[in-house]
Amino acid sequence: QVNSKPGESRCKEKHVGLLSPVGKIEISGCETGLHEIKLPKMSVLPSGAEASAACEVCEGAEEMPEPLEQCMAWLRAYFCEPATIANLPVPAFHHPVLQQDSFTRQVLWTLLNEVKFGETVSYKQLADLAGNSRAARAVGGAMRSNPIAIIIPCHRVIRSGGKTGNYGAGHLVKEWLLSHEKLQKEKLA
């Protein structure tokens, strides 16, 4: 875990674009780890998203550092072959939010480790899991600052009443991801 101090050489950030069923996902990172997975904001999901669950790298594929390659493999599996996710390494992360010791970091790591494909958790349940049952609101804040969408599955955090709640890329994308996981999980069952 390297925090770059002013004056140190900054990590060489690379960008990759991945065409996915929910549109173009932008991924950035360096040799040390992923910086960000950014989903497109969508008010309308692309038609036929279910039919073509293909994932293709559309830009920046040359000389990908290992964390980016692992990330691509992970996302491809997520969309196309969820049964294989468990065998794939989760790429290293290199983002300040995931390196500073904070409740947000605690929440994001808890979510990554505890809430599996096809499961959901409420803000309050996640606050409990992360060790502070009264911090449901702070969990919402942590979800908003999650730099690594999908891998750190903030889309699996829903409201206690079962409503999907907010999502950075819009509720359509969140609903798509949740129904994708539900369908795939039923297939695997």
From TrEMBL:
InterPro entries noted in UniProt: MethylDNA_cys_MeTrfase_AS, MethylDNA_cys_MeTrfase_DNA-bd, MethylDNA_cys_MeTrfase_DNAb, MethylG_MeTrfase_N, MGMT_N_sf, WH-like_DNA-bd_sf
Example of a GO MF term: metal ion binding
Requisite cofactors: Zn(2+)
Domain Methylated-DNA-[protein]-cysteine S-methyltransferase DNA binding: from-to ranges: 105-182
Annotated catalysed reactions: a 6-O-methyl-2'-deoxyguanosine in DNA + L-cysteinyl-[protein] = S-methyl-L-cysteinyl-[protein] + a 2'-deoxyguanosine in DNA; a 4-O-methyl-thymidine in DNA + L-cysteinyl-[protein] = a thymidine in DNA + S-methyl-L-cysteinyl-[protein]
Entries under PROSITE patterns matching the protein: MGMT (PS00374)
CDD domains: ATase
Family annotation (Pfam families): DNA_binding_1, Methyltransf_1N
EC numbers on record: 2.1.1.63
UniProt keyword annotation of ATP-binding present: no
Subcellular location: Nucleus
Organism superkingdom: Eukaryota
Similarity comment text for this entry: Belongs to the MGMT family.
PANTHER family, alphabetized: METHYLATED-DNA--PROTEIN-CYSTEINE METHYLTRANSFERASE
Primary role: Involved in the cellular defense against the biological effects of O6-methylguanine (O6-MeG) and O4-methylthymine (O4-MeT) in DNA. Repairs the methylated nucleobase in DNA by stoichiometrically transferring the methyl group to a cysteine residue in the enzyme. This is a suicide reaction: the enzyme is irreversibly inactivated.
Entry protein name: Methylated-DNA--protein-cysteine methyltransferase
Gene from which the chain derives: Mgmt
